[in-house]
Amino acid sequence: MTGYLEVISAGPGISVQDLGRPGFTALGLSTGGAADRRALWEAAALLGQARPQAALELPLTGGRFRVTAPTRLALTGAPMQASRDGKPLIWNASHGLAPGELLDLRPGDSGVYGYLSLAGGLLTVETLGARATLAAAGLGTVVETGMRLPFGTDPAPATPPQRLPADDRFGGGALRVIEGPQTALFDAETRARAFATAFQAGPASRQGLALTHKGAPFGTATAGLLSDFIGPGDIQMTGAGQPVVLLADCQTIGGYPRLGTVIPTDLSRAAQARPGTALRLVPIPLDAAEIAAPPEPLWLAQIRRQLRPLTRDPRDIADLLSYQLISGMIRGDEEDA
């Protein structure tokens, strides 16, 4: 039976996202999808899904929700303050949610994008094979207070809650970069300086993340350069000499030269960097990058190996005394009788 996720309140910028619409770049349509794609694969592992389903993306904002049918949910991405009927919920874990219970999500202290996934996936309108929201193209669903979003039936409601270990991608760090077709257009001094510079995350959107730094602007390499295809992960060097890491909703063609490309495994780290977060660019050979960043479908098996049972705190179990706590108890001297 289809249920509905009722949006009791919603902060700005919440949207429905999945893995996007690959295959339309030649037509000028961005792939889009979740800014932190790994968060959706983590949710798929927690909920036993074969692949990620459409979920809510909450960028530095919160919301309150109820469901009309019981379901399991997963909370992944940037850690948020989460509670169910006022009782805290562990992040990066799966939980049950019953009709009438209030799920409250509020921004945390690190990262940008938090995700709320349901076991049956959100069943909002599908266009061009996806439910992802691409605001510039008028596709998908921007979530507002009062909406009722349909979701699918939980295929395995009796599955015990699980959790994943905390990840370090929400506090900045290294962005590994492979060379691209325009890397050689930058002189050796500029390339060396870029990889030796301590950057901070600057202004960001779903289109791209500016990398700010102290000192003079970087040199550019625009002589005779024609507009070319671009995609998420590419590092464009603007005319002002500032590098920008392109993210999920980036344009499909551009004229700024590209210093290189952040590997997919590290792109979530860039997307989750709040302004001021320390970042650095690290060159990586292509063969090493292929090992460090396997195809996304392989992520699921890797993440599943990290799953652990979610241990509930007895103080949070209202019906604790209804459980059989001493099943199988014996005196210890039966064999002597």
Automatic annotation (TrEMBL):
Gene3D superfamilies: Cyclophilin-like (2.40.100.10). It holds the Pfam family CT_A_B. Residues 26-299 form the Carboxyltransferase domain. SMART domains: AHS2 (SM00797). GO terms for molecular function: ATP binding; hydrolase activity; lyase activity. Keywords: ATP-binding, Hydrolase, Lyase, Nucleotide-binding. This is Urea amidolyase. The lineage of its organism: Bacteria, Pseudomonadati, Pseudomonadota, Alphaproteobacteria, Rhodobacterales.
